[in-house]
Amino acid sequence: MDYRVNIFLRQKWNDPRLKLPTDYQGSDLLTIDPKLFKCLWKPDLFFANEKNANFHDVSQENILLFISRSSDVLLSMRLSLVLSCPLDLMLFPMDMQRCKMQLESFGYTTDDLRFIWESGDPVQMNDIALPQFDIAREDVEYRNCTKFYKGTGYYTCVEVIFTLHRQVGFYMMGVYAPTLLIVVLSWLSFWINPDASAARVPLGIFSVLSLSSESMSFSAQLPKVSYVKAIDVWLIMCLVFTFASLVEYAVVQVMLNSPGRIAAEKERRRMRERMKEYADVEEEFERTRDSASPVGRPSPCSGVHPTSNGMSTPGLFGTLQGAEARYKRVCMSLSDLRTPDFSIVGSLPQDFKLTNYDCLTARAEHDTNKWSRSLQRHDAAHETRTASQSGHSSSRETGRSLLASAFPTLLLPFQHHLLVRLLMKARSGSVFNGRLRRHLLPSN
């Protein structure tokens, strides 16, 4: 980097040959005409890191020369300099630069001439306002930089070091904030439906291209260096995040379209349809139960018709066949089997267990139909036997037959698959040895 300065260079030395007369009555400093400047001896000073320098001669040469009574010569001139300053952009734009100004003798060695900074504050600066850097007087450092050149010897040199702190406000608003917003914009694709590829893909591509363009345009304004700068790390990470959001969408699409997930989704939809179907059937049975007619009156829902003696005859199996066929496709959880609404739960033995989702199998369906047919045959035989009986005995047996035929109707609103298993076990005698078997199987 180069930096340009306008300075008043003041040099002071002692020349015994230039001594004012003792009878001189003027001031202690004698102003010399600038035309005599070339006639005087002057130090051969030059700026070691100078790239360009100019004297100011408007409206005349800006040179001031004083001679004191003690033979001290003060030379002041106005210069415009362009000096070089090596940059360390490792921490850019939060970096700090140290720029030097070196003043060195060209022909006189240290045996003939030595440069020494004036005591106190040799470099005086007014309030300097730089567009990109901050500098303070406390950040100015003075050093001696005497140099050795092979073949000629040591040459006197002094330097002043200016510490410049870069202002990051421009880069915060011009680089960090826009790139951060682009990254956040790319993250919005995470809230878009994965099936909406027309919205997610252009958003990711736009973010990647925007960051790439921002990075290239900004890098063109910086010096070409071989190392990585701090802002390069920021831009690269922003590009990685935006590119990762685009890659994430591709990964999500692969996972969504995997055969295993598609099969699982179909199974979940099938189970939801079954549960909805079960809810509809349960609602239908609730309406049937609420609208059922009392015993002795005809009911279109139950299919029960009164006999000549005022008692009803069971005829529920024909009505329940359609509902049973639909219930056989529904699975119920084990937690539903232990509800207080199920009045015969207390009759279950301790070792009677069912799986969490114990669906009806073809064997259970076969046994259910077989058991229903057995009950129907039993009812027909019972009606034949009760035809010869009278009074209270006929009513009692008819009620028992009604309970046997209507028992599936009472139990289906809870768990139909449990009914099937209970009836199967009741046939084998492994579960109900008592009251349930007596109700279901009337004695001869």
UniProtKB/TrEMBL annotation:
| Ranges where the record places region Disordered | 282-313, 368-397
Residue span, Neurotransmitter-gated ion-channel ligand-binding domain: 1-167
Superkingdom of origin: Eukaryota
Record's PROSITE patterns? Answer: NEUROTR_ION_CHANNEL (PS00236)
For membrane topology, the record states: Multi-pass membrane protein
Task: State the Gene Ontology terms under molecular function.
Answer: chloride channel activity; extracellularly glycine-gated ion channel activity; transmembrane signaling receptor activity
SUPFAM superfamilies the record matches: Neurotransmitter-gated ion-channel transmembrane pore, Nicotinic receptor ligand binding domain-like
Q: Which UniProt keywords apply?
A: Cell membrane, Cell projection, Chloride, Chloride channel, Cytoplasm, Disulfide bond, Glycoprotein, Ion channel, Ion transport, Ligand-gated ion channel, Membrane, Phosphoprotein, Postsynaptic cell membrane, Receptor, Signal, Synapse, Transmembrane, Transmembrane helix, Transport
Catalytic reaction list: chloride(in) = chloride(out)
Compartments annotated for it: namely: Cell projection, Dendrite; Cytoplasm; Postsynaptic cell membrane
The segment(s) forming the Neurotransmitter-gated ion-channel transmembrane domain are 175-383
Enumerate the transmembrane spans. 170-192, 233-252
Output the Pfam families linked to this UniProt entry: Neur_chan_LBD, Neur_chan_memb
GO CC terms in record: chloride channel complex; cytoplasm; dendrite; postsynaptic membrane
- Main location group: other
Q: Give me the stretches of Basic and acidic residues compositional bias.
A: 368-385
Q: Which family does it belong to?
A: Belongs to the ligand-gated ion channel (TC 1.A.9) family. Glycine receptor (TC 1.A.9.3) subfamily. GLRB sub-subfamily.
What the protein does?
A: Subunit of heteromeric glycine-gated chloride channels. Plays an important role in the down-regulation of neuronal excitability. Contributes to the generation of inhibitory postsynaptic currents.
Q: Which PANTHER family match?
A: NEUROTRANSMITTER GATED ION CHANNEL (PTHR18945)
Give the record's subunit note: Forms heteropentamers with glycin receptor alpha subunits. Heteropentamers with GLRA1 can be composed of two GLRA1 and three GLRB subunits, or three GLRA1 and two GLRB subunits, or four GLRA1 subunits and one GLRB subunit. Forms heteropentamers with GLRA2. Functional GLRB-GLRA2 heteropentamers contain four GLRA2 subunits and one GLRB subunit, although alternative subunit composition cannot be excluded. Forms a heteropentamer with GLRA3. Interacts with GPHN.
Q: What is this protein called?
A: Glycine receptor subunit beta
Taxonomic lineage of this organism? Eukaryota, Metazoa, Chordata, Craniata, Vertebrata
